[in-house]
Amino acid sequence: MSAGTVEIMGTLREDGTLVLDQNPGLPPGRVKVLVEQTHERPNFRDLRGFVERVRQEQRETGHMPRTREEIDREIAESRRENQREQSVEAAIDQHFPKDFKPGAA
Fold first, then answer.
1. How far apart are alpha carbons 42 and 77 in whole angstroms?
2. What is the C-alpha separation between 72 and 78, in angstroms, rounded?
3. What is the DSSP string of 57-77?
4. Higher-confidence position of 101 and 29
C-alpha cells in the first residue's frame, strides 16, 4: 500500500453508510473507498449458522478462547476483590457515623 492508503474492515449498513472498525488515522478530506464484500451478511435469526460463522472467523484470526480454568480463576479473583471492598466499607461504617461529612466542623 502506498502512503496515505489504509486498509480497514468495516460494516455497510442498510442505508448505505459505512461504519469503520477503527479510525484510519488520515487527515480529514475526501477519500476513495473500495468496498469488497468479505462474506455474506449473517442471518441473526439462524442462531446456529451465526455461531458457526463467528467460530470460523475466530479460527481464521487465530482467536484462542479462555480455558475453563482461566475463567474460574478470574471469577475467584473478582469475588476476592468484592470481599476486600466489602471489608473496607464495613470498616469505614464502623468508624464513622452515618451522617459524617468530611471537612465539616
1. 36
2. 10
3. HHHHHT--PPPHHHHHHHHHH
4. 29
Query: Quick one: cell of 9?
Result: 474492515
Q: Residue 13 is placed in which grid cell?
A: 449498513
The residues, ordered by sequence, that sit 6+ positions from 9 with a Cβ below 8 Å of its Cβ are 20, 21, 38
Q: Which residues contact 38 (CB under 8 A, 6 or more apart)?
A: 9
Indicate yes or no: pTM above 0.70.
no
Three-state SS at 17: coil
* 73 residue type, one letter: R
* Cβ-proximal residues to 22 (8 Å cutoff; 6+ apart), any chain: 8
Residue with the bigger pLDDT between 80 and 16: it is: 80
Counting beta carbons within 10 angstroms of the beta carbon of residue 3, is it exposed (0 to 12), middle (13 to 18) or buried (19 or more)? exposed
